[in-house]
DNA sequence: ACGAGAACCTGTTTGC
DNA sequence: TGCAAACAGGTTCTCG
């Protein structure tokens, strides 16, 4: 489910709910996530104060006092649900980790597929954490520009779709926002990365930034509603131009479903790709 | 080193 | 309606 904008939204929701408070209780119902939770995970969280929450790629870094970082990745199906500790504890299936603050907030990590993961480690080791080191620049940060992308794409024969999904190239894009960014940049997902060239690289960088910024904004507005109602963070449906729109008219060129018209769906790297074959080259 | 594909796991949607 | 296949927004491993 979550790509960069969703993770950003979850982080903001957690920050509002938790920062400044201490973790009064941590319950591990199932520790075999994508990787097993580390030894002493629950005890390490208990009693710690939440000082800050940062996002790096699709990871959340919950900075605790005592020099610890609680690392969270939501995987494909991970969700964070906020409720009140005043309610009775009544876990649903796939509620794997439950954390309660002394401020009365209960945070439930639910993840049916268990592709998500958590870790707890000393903050001074953040620089050499293998998971965090495996990611490229933040797309909304200063290190991501046409020069960088051009250099990264040099000589690469893989399609732009696979290239942009590679977290070492740029951090935080997933299947949805790659499709949306390529559409916005008018670039075919099948184009070989190495054929990008400067002008297209500039367009692509701009499109990636714009698509993510829009989605984060949309997440911010849904956050206000969700925190008050369902308590579920980060699950929002931004309106997409091409993702999931197979067979529908292209929003920009209005081409319709014939041989060459409408939004097409193809499979690349075992994932669905949506694009407008008429506009994207 | 790179790229393609399978694998991890479970729930939901689609198709016959 | 029922059942099986396909599919799901992520990452990582293996193989060529």
Can you give a write-up of this model?
This protein has helices at 4-18, 41-45, 130-133, 146-153, 160-165, 175-185, 197-228, and strands at 23-28, 50-56, 59-64, 68-73, 79-84, 95-101, 105-110, 117-122, 232-233, 264-268, 271-275. With 281 residues, it is α+β, with helices and mostly antiparallel strands. It has a 5-stranded antiparallel beta sheet with strand order 1-6-7-5-9. A 4-stranded antiparallel beta sheet has the order 2-3-4-8. It is globular and about 55 Å long. It binds a DNA duplex (16 and 16 nucleotides) through residues 1-3, 6, 34, 58, 73-77, 94, 112-117, 134, 155-158, 162, 165, 167, 174-177, 243, 269-272.
Task: Give a topology summary.
Elements lengths: L3 H15 L4 E6 L12 H5 L4 E7 L2 E6 L3 E6 L5 E6 L10 E7 L3 E6 L6 E6 L7 H4 L12 H8 L6 H6 L9 H11 L11 H32 L3 E2 L30 E5 L2 E5 L6
Antiparallel strand pairs: 1-6, 2-3, 3-4, 4-8, 5-7, 5-9, 6-7, 10-11
This protein binds a DNA duplex (16 and 16 nucleotides) through helix 6.
Concise account of the structure shown:
The protein is α+β, with helices and mostly antiparallel strands and 281 residues long.
- Strand arrangement, major sheet: 1-6-7-5-9
The beta-strand count equals 11
Shape: globular
Radius of gyration: 20 Å
Low-confidence stretches: none
**Average of pLDDT:** 94
Q: What share of residues are in beta strands?
A: 15-25%
**Distance N to C terminus:** 28 Å
- Figure out the total of helices: 7
Helix content: 25-40%
Describe the biggest sheet? 5 strands, antiparallel
Secondary-structure element series? HEHEEEEEEEHHHHHEEE
Summing up helix and strand content along with how strands pair, one would put the structural category as: alpha+beta
């Amino acid at each position: 489910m979550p790509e960069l904008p969703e993770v950003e939204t979850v982080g903001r929701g957690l920050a509002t709910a938790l920062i400044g408070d201490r973790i009064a209780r941590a319950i591990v119902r199932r520790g075999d996530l994508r990787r097993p939770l580390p030894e002493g995970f629950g005890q390490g969280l208990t009693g710690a104060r939440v000082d800050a929450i940062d996002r790096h790629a699709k990871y959340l870094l919950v900075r605790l006092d005592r020099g610890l970082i609680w690392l969270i990745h939501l995987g494909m199906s991970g969700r964070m649900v906020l409720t009140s500790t005043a309610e009775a504890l009544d876990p649903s299936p796939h509620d794997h980790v439950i954390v309660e603050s002394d401020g009365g907030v209960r945070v439930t990590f639910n993840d049916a597929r268990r592709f998500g993961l958590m870790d707890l480690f000393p903050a001074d080791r953040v620089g050499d954490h293998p998971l965090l080191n495996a990611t490229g620049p933040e797309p909304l940060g200063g290190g991501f520009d046409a020069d960088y992308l051009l250099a990264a794409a040099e000589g690469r024969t893989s399609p732009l779709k696979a290239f942009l999904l590679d977290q070492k190239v740029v951090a935080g894009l997933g299947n949805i926002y790659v499709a949306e960014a390529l559409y916005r940049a008018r670039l075919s997902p099948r184009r070989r990365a190495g054929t990008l060239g400067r002008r297209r690289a500039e367009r692509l960088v701009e499109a990636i930034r714009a698509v993510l910024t829009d989605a984060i904004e949309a997440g911010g507005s849904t956050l206000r509603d969700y925190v008050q109602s369902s308590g579920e963070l980060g699950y929002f449906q931004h309106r997409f131009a091409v993702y999931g729109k197979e067979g529908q008219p292209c929003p920009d060129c209005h081409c319709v479903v014939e041989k060459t018209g409408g939004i097409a769906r193809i499979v690349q790297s075992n994932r669905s790709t949506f694009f407008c074959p008429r506009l994207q080259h």
